[in-house]
Amino acid sequence: MTTGRYRRFALFTVIGVALWLGFLPLYDWLFAWTEHVPGINWIYLPHGLRMILVLLFGPAGALGFTIGAATYTRYSAHGPHLDPWLDLVLAVIPGLAAWLAVMLTFRQWPGRSLQPWVFNGRPALNARALLSLAAVSAALNSTSHIMARYALGNEVQDWAELLIAMFIGDLFGALLLLYILKGCIWLLRNLTSNAIHHERKTKPESP
Predict the structure, then answer these.
(1) Which terminus of the chain, N or C, has less C-beta within 10 A?
(2) pLDDT confidence of residue 36
(3) What is the CATH number of the domain that holds 171?
(4) Residue 206: inside a domain
């Protein structure tokens, strides 16, 4: 990895940390009414943010929101604070789940980020891919969370209810933000295309 790539990786990681730490308190405030139990919501938009960060920034995005989640849990009164080891595990699991979900959904994914596909006009984020990504990531994240809680002795009952609630929350949270990302990409491409067309139309022909 060259110096430029190291710097870009570090920058994307910092962006992921900042976005997570900025988004999560706002989400907790606006969507407190969706909470099923602490840490599990029926509409969990931060899971959508996880997927966007991984799609755009690759492993740097996953590392960024993992660091952000660990920091938020450690220093915020809103964090789960279940157990120091469990809090750490629950901060790492979403990063691994998001990364694996993207690798399973986009088999020809560049492996670093989705930016090459976003800006070269390739229709990577079609409806089928978005639904698959949201479902796979929600399944991986929710099952891993519940298994970790059981393994470290935190949850002893109602595991099925917690699993269903987390899966639904992650699924809808991912779909909502992924479709917003798709809309932003569509808008960006149209604006770029119109700007290029306008420039060509107004540019005087060479004699």
Answers:
(1) C
(2) 82
(3) 1.10.1760
(4) no
Best mean pLDDT range from 83-92, 151-160, 168-177, 178-187? 168-177
Number of domains in the chain: 1
- Tell me: pLDDT of 117 over 70: no
- In 3D space, the residue among 58, 155, 61 whose CA is nearest the CA of residue 109 turns out to be 58
Is residue 107 situated within a structural domain?
yes
What's the CA gap between 172 and 182, in Å, rounded? Answer: 15
Min mean pLDDT across 57-61, 144-148, 184-188 is at: 184-188
DSSP H helix total and E strand total for the chain: 7, 2
Residue for token digits 């996880």? 50
Residue among 34, 17, 31 nearest 75 (CA): 17
Strand partners, 35: 41
Structural domain that includes position 56:
3-201
